[in-house]
Design goal:
By secondary structure, this protein is an alpha+beta fold. It has one domain (4-115). The chain has six helices and five strands. Strands 1-3-2-5-4 form a five-stranded mixed beta sheet. A hairpin with a 2-residue loop joins strand 2 (24-28) and strand 3. Helix 3 (46-62) crosses helix 4 (64-78) and helix 3 runs antiparallel to helix 5. The protein binds zinc ion. Residues 102-125 are annotated as: Disordered.
């Protein structure tokens, strides 16, 4: 899939500070904006990459502004965790984890932040 990774993104940095997350990966169109995590570490995390690639596909399927709007509406309706776009991305991100131990799985969970955008954080030990 056609995508770009932006390290030390000011957008992701604002989200990270406001949300008090250690790391943020935020998708805007075809770009994955990172803050608090390097491109190298991010790309090594197969599950995290699959999760964010799913958001890129959602942007492509629905259109840039329309997807941002649908994402916001969905979050207001059911909350961030149950947002159907996050549920879909979460399932994508878990396909690779069948062989992991439950502890490792829990430690590498990708969770949506409370941002009105598809921005996620990786829970760390
Ligand atoms: Zn997400």
């Amino acid at each position: 899939m056609d995508f770009k990774v932006v390290e030390r993104s000011p957008f992701a940095r604002i989200a990270r500070i406001v949300l008090k997350s250690k790391n943020v990966a935020m998708v805007l169109g075809k770009s994955i904006h990172l803050s608090g995590v390097s491109r190298e570490v991010f790309l090594k995390d197969e599950g995290w990459v699959a999760h964010e690639l799913c958001h890129i596909r959602q942007f492509r399927e629905h259109g840039y502004l329309r997807f941002l709007w649908l994402y916001l509406l969905e979050s207001m309706r059911v909350g961030y965790y149950n947002n159907k776009y996050e549920v879909e991305a979460r399932l994508e991100g878990m396909k690779h984890r069948r062989h992991m131990s439950p502890a490792l799985r829990a430690a590498s969970t990708i969770e949506p932040t409370d941002a009105p955008l598809p921005a996620d954080t990786r829970r760390e030990e």
